[in-house]
Structures are given as structure tokens and as C-alpha cells.
Amino acid sequence: MMIDHAADLAVVTLDVGDASQAQAADAFVASHAAGMPFHRTAWLRAITAATGHRAVLLAAVAPSGDIKGLLPLHHVKSRLFGNALVSTGFAVDGGLLVTDDRALAPLAAAAIQLARDKGAISVELRGGPAPGGEWSSAEGEYVGFVRPIAVDDEAELLAIPRKHRAELRKALANPSLSVEVGRTDRLLRDHYHVYATSVRNLGTPVFPAKLFKSVLQHFGDDADLLVVWQDDRPVSAVLSLYHQGRAMPYWGGGVADARQLRSNELMYYRLMGHGRARGMTHFDFGRSKAGSGQAAWKKSFGFEPVPRVYHDWAADGAGRDVNPHSAKYRRRVDLWKRLPLPVANLLGPMISRGLG
């Protein structure tokens, strides 16, 4: 379907369920240095399958048929948090991806038109170049952490600052701790238990279990699980993505005594080695709130923070507030931490689905 055009570039919607159109979009993402897993049609399909949020993939196409830009979006609907077009749902990066700067304005304009057509909802772009014009940008609220993976385990250990390295050595010397990597249903269940416990303790509603299963299914070998065991008890776990040379731990956490066991340190160290064995060259530690304890922890692991830039548009100038660190939600966070885990796991997916 034709939406808009500028100069000789036309903006069209691609059907992520059509094999040939999806293949063309994914080839564009794979060839782009700034392409992320959140631009891929696998991510769009996985989020839609797990949450029902409809995917819209805008493409700027030249007369030759070549794609010059993409903007993947999810229409996230929530009675509690409001509606928005998000690039992309449940992602920490994404946004406009272009090889021709002329594609920026028409893709951004098409997104705004879609938002107006859906009732003047807001648009959120989590990364990518600035659209300009009516859009606002925020830099530094979140920071990202990426560094090269060392050549071997010993070099990786030495790349970690001394104080944190000493903590990791304690985990490495603990005979009760072991690590398993895979994609089995058992690991998926153990990962969800650990992750749900971790986010409840942080005061955040857990995502639906089928979200993690859907991402694993749609990404195939480009996603897996790593679980750290204390004897036969899972204590730390992470679901990771692999994309264009990057190992990307994405959804991870630990149980209450993971800190004492240093099992999270062991988890990420072993994941670096696993990524190296898979041929990955960089470790992408994801984003954290600037100034947070999580950001400080990642820095102590030998990663330097780099500001993330997000862009948004809203008809009335006020978009959604889905930041769990905002003052508006602090009381809710404190209450959530007190919920029994079964209750949190029952209510959390219904709430978090709208965070997108």
C-alpha cells in the first residue's frame, strides 16, 4: 500500500508475513552497520505473536525497487498507559534505518500520519537518526554499554577491572555453580522463574512467558538461554540475541542471593566466552538508566557508558510515561516489590503487555 512519497522515493508498507518482502527487509537490515535485531522482521512477528500488538513496517523504496530506508513499528495499546506507535515494541533500540538521508523525512512523516489516523496517538523511536521537524529528542536519560570481546577467557578476565574481577574469581572457584546453554523448554521455564523473581524484586511487572518463547522461536539459532545453577537450583539466567557480530544479553536476572553467590558475574563472563565461540566480536550489555546502580555495575565490569538518543512525537506534545523510574510510578514500584511471587506472575503480564 502506498502511503506517501518524496522526490523519487516512495514510502510503502511491507507485509512482514510475506516471505519475499520480509526477506528483502531483513537483507537491508543485515547489510546496514546500524541494523539491530529490533529492526528484523523476526522481532516484529515475535512481538505480535506474543502480545497482539500489530506490526507496521514502513519502507522507503527507490524506483529501482531497492529499499533505501526502514521504520519498523508496533502499535502498542494499553488502557493503563495509553496507545503509541513504537519502534519497536519491547525493544531498547531501533528507530529509523536509512542508507539515503532523503528517506528520513518521508518515513517520519508517514509515521506521524499513521499516528494521526489512529487517533493522534504518540510515536516513540528508540534510537536511530533524528527525524527533525516536529519531533523532540532526549539524550542521556539512558546509556548503552558495548565493548569488544577479548581473544580468550584469560584476556576477558583481565579486561574486567580488578575489584570486579576479584568477585568473579570467587564465582569461578565455587564448585556448586555450573552453567548450561541451550533452547530447551526446561531452560525456558527456569529462565522465566529466575527472571520473574528478579523483576518482582525490582518492583517491575514481569513480561508474559510467551514473549520469551516467541522470541526464541522466531529468532531460531540467533537466540538462546544461559542458566547458572547452584547445584540443582537455577540462580541466574539470561535470554540473549546474536546479531551482526554482537552477543546481546537481553532479558536476564538473578534470584535474591545471586549477589552473594556472584552468579550474575559468572553468567555474563561465561556468555562472553559463549559469544566468542559463536564468532561474535562485541558484547552489547544493553541499556541502563543513567546514574543507576545497574549502570554503575556494568561500568565496574569494564564497560563505558554511551548516551542513547530517543525521539518522539505527540499531537499535543505529551506522549506516554512508561518510565519505571519516574516519580509517577515510584509508589507502584514499592507496592509491587511486596507482592507474593505467584500474584506478581499472575498480574504482571497483563500490566507489562501495555509497556511495550
From TrEMBL:
Pfam families (alphabetical): Acetyltransf_6 (PF13480)
Gene3D superfamilies tied to this protein: 3.40.630.30
Residues that span the membrane, as ranges: none
Domain BioF2-like acetyltransferase: 163-299
InterPro entries: Acyl_CoA_acyltransferase (IPR016181), BioF2-like_GNAT_dom (IPR038740), PEP-CTERM_FemAB-rel (IPR017469)
NCBIfam families registered for this protein in UniProt: pepcterm_femAB
Protein name stated in the entry: FemAB family PEP-CTERM system-associated protein
The species this protein was found in: Sphingobium limneticum
